[in-house]
């Protein structure tokens, strides 16, 4: 179903060549959270009848750089980027600035967020806050269950060249180092590139290696669900392991209702998408916009999950 939705989005909004008057959009890859982000863009653009051309970089940073170059060559009014690798953003920022085309980064924090200049902006959420909320809640749940001595935790990271993965993981380390939660001991951490299948394989490898974690913290929900599926396949009771993600996707919330996911963090992907289009339109008109434009994260657990079922 996810593939059909993304395919329909691509078919609706992507043409082979952008034309003047468009806002060009490049999305890092296809997943359920980014599908919501794209929907937020579509909804906002429809309100003001703003043409969009949306392309997917399929996790390929070189492809994304090429897409940005093509948008510039086509003379679009503005460009929106959900970046594959945040380390590549200075090059994209320079290309757009040299061409005099407004640029808006969305969702993934660009590495040059403090040096974007007057014709560029970032709309997103503070990734360090997401990791902090996630890790503190895991700490609380472990304490509540009496697991306060050498509680081993595993971290499943996103793409390591992406600031989102770096900051969310750093926050987990910082929480685990704090006096209140230093009983949490990091056993291992590896990247699964945001991919649920790779996360499932990674979790299976950890189980085979004999790891017995008290908690598994993933940088996004899709990888968290991959870990859940692996544990179930190995015959583990997911109630014995605190599984945590980030994004509060609909699928993740259903896993939480079923008792398989203990923690996630709501990321307002609809709001980010809408905010990025609004910022791009304003910059194209020569107006100033706030940057960074922070959209708050919110903790989601079984006690409040019902409040988030229709938000993303």
From TrEMBL:
Periplasmic binding protein domain mapped to chain residues: 23-288
Locations listed in the record: Cell envelope
Organism superkingdom: Bacteria
Keyword vocabulary terms for this entry: Signal
SUPFAM superfamilies per the UniProt record, alphabetical: Periplasmic binding protein-like I
Signal peptide, first to last residue: 1-20
InterPro entries: Peripla_BP_I (IPR028082), SBP_2_dom (IPR025997)
Pfam families reported in the protein's UniProt record: Peripla_BP_4
Main location: other
UniProt family annotation: Belongs to the bacterial solute-binding protein 2 family.
Stated name of the protein: Rhizopine-binding protein
Species: Agrobacterium arsenijevicii
Organism classification: Bacteria, Pseudomonadati, Pseudomonadota, Alphaproteobacteria, Hyphomicrobiales
